[in-house]
Design a protein that fits this description.
266 residues, Glutaredoxin, Glutathione S-transferase Yfyf (Class Pi), Chain A, domain 2, 4 strands
């Protein structure tokens, strides 16, 4: 196992960031988290990722001897962690089980942008709500910059994510299809999605769906303010067994992830 020190660059509200944050916590791996501010993260993410992408999370590994390595994209980070810091208990060694876990991981990753698109379609009409979420861990100067340039950032964000009424409707349909699959998977009463132990499959599904399920243990989506704003859930989301499953997975396996010190990126 590597003796590298780890720094995770995240957004507090990002379900992909939560997936890696949770994996690190569940694996007992010590790391420092840097909560970044949307739009102000662009240049640092481009510099660290080195692939022309601005997505988070990014994992920074400081190796003995001064070598620094950056890994971008949550699936790539999972694979890097298992290879360099593992074997991880949440990624079992059995070939067939591991394949099933990664298939489920890919299935829920595929609707990650759909969940964001569906939520932001209505949220982006409420500037103050979005600014508050984006600047929750920002410094005073960072918050001032986000508010000043928000009209431009909002336009760019909508364009990049493809936010429109038609796209939101299509995203809602893809989410419903995945929820129907998940309800079917859970219909035999199983506690975990793959095998008989908690794994990356459960972490990914629960993290991606957290903005819809609003589990108490999530520092953003479990907050009363977010629940109040999201109180009018659509009929296709209400009373689904899989939503109760997400909340139960959080209750059993997730401590408040921001309980430890989380420095804010300058």
């Amino acid at each position: 196992m590597s003796t590298a020190s780890l720094t995770l660059y995240t957004f507090s509200m990002s379900h992909f960031s939560e997936k890696i944050r949770w994996t690190l916590d569940a694996s007992g791996l010590k790391f420092r988290e840097v909560l970044m501010t949307p739009t102000l993260h662009l240049v640092p993410a481009l510099r660290m990722g080195g692939q022309g992408e601005t997505t988070l999370p990014i994992l920074q590994s400081n190796q003995p001897g001064g070598k620094v390595e950056h890994v971008q994209d949550s699936t790539h980070i999972l694979q890097w962690l298992d290879k360099r810091m593992g074997p991880l208990a949440v990624m079992p060694r059995a070939i067939s089980l591991n394949a099933d876990i990664m298939d489920i991981e890919a299935r829920f990753d595929a609707i990650g942008d759909d969940v964001a698109r569906y939520l932001y379609f209505s949220a982006l009409d409420q500037d103050d709500r979005v600014i508050e979420m984006w600047t929750r861990h920002a410094s005073r100067n960072q918050a001032r910059l986000v508010r000043l340039f928000f009209p431009i950032s909002k336009w760019l964000f909508k364009r990049r994510l493809g936010v429109s009424s038609r796209a939101a409707a299509q995203s809602a349909l893809r989410i419903q299809q995945t929820l129907a699959w998940l309800d079917g998977r859970l219909s035999d009463g199983r506690r975990y999605l793959a095998g008989h132990q908690f794994s990356v499959a459960d972490i990914t599904a629960a993290s991606i769906l957290a903005p819809l399920a609003c589990p108490d243990e999530h520092p953003v989506y479990g907050a009363k303010s977010f629940r109040r704003d999201a109180a009018h859930e659509p009929t296709w989301l209400a009373h689904r067994p899989c939503m109760d499953w997400v909340r139960e997975v959080y209750r059993r396996h997730r401590e408040a992830p921001f309980a430890k010190e989380t420095p804010v990126a300058a």
